[in-house]
């Protein structure tokens, strides 16, 4: 959604008279850009929902005006997940129109690039004389230093990624904003990566911080594509890395995977491939990823036999699976499953 709200005109978030009945200070106090937060209009009575929503987005994003679709009931939810300098906010809400105006821009001191990743419903964004129509799986960029408008005629779901412009070292964003990036563009990889990163961080994962440089590289690569210019070397490397790991995740169940197969499928050299996966090589990376999937399957599907888990994770034999699992975790698959209170097979 990429923004914050006001009472339908420029000015302070408290312009709406209905906000006198709402403790707006508690909304802003709830959101620290460096910590997880979840906000919902369910906290207030329905007549106050949109007024409260304006405060929610004002606390989470940059400053914007916001207006509901006339005559329709409103509800909205924001889940804010920060990782380093990157802020990811999942927005689920009813239809609305938002604008970022010159007056509101003048009130802000920080400069952000925002990526709106459409998850459900449809949206439309306008900036720099262009309009981007977004369907599920597509994304577009907006620059907080210039006016833009966002339109959602019906309920929608978005993941908004907000990053300080200084972190991306972008000199000129005028050619990359409000351009829809979907199938066949880097937007597909960027969307998949950030949805996964937000989900894993929300679930309590602790590895997000080490992925920040990679995340910034992906954002830069897609921005370069949108701006129709050649991406810098780090951005190219980030896209190649994402391509490789996406391919590995999609094909873990194939026991014939090897370095040559991966390099050909991802259009990279073996040298680049080994730089991406590390000195231990493709086989070691695959083994770690397969064991990670196996651990998840052992717990989520306790009725599935261990040999079926092994096959689903790309192991040729149950004995090979047992050896690899013990080497990685210090336990057998059966002991691991039993340790979490399920019945071993």
UniProtKB/TrEMBL annotation:
InterPro entries: AraC-bd_2 (IPR035418), AraC_XylS_family_regulators (IPR050204), Homeodomain-like_sf (IPR009057), HTH_AraC (IPR018060), HTH_AraC-typ_CS (IPR018062). One of its GO terms (molecular function) is sequence-specific DNA binding. SMART domains: HTH_ARAC (SM00342). Signal peptide: none annotated. Keywords: DNA-binding, Transcription, Transcription regulation. It comes from Saccharopolyspora elongata. Residues 242-339 form the HTH araC/xylS-type domain. It holds the Pfam family AraC_binding_2. This is Helix-turn-helix domain-containing protein.
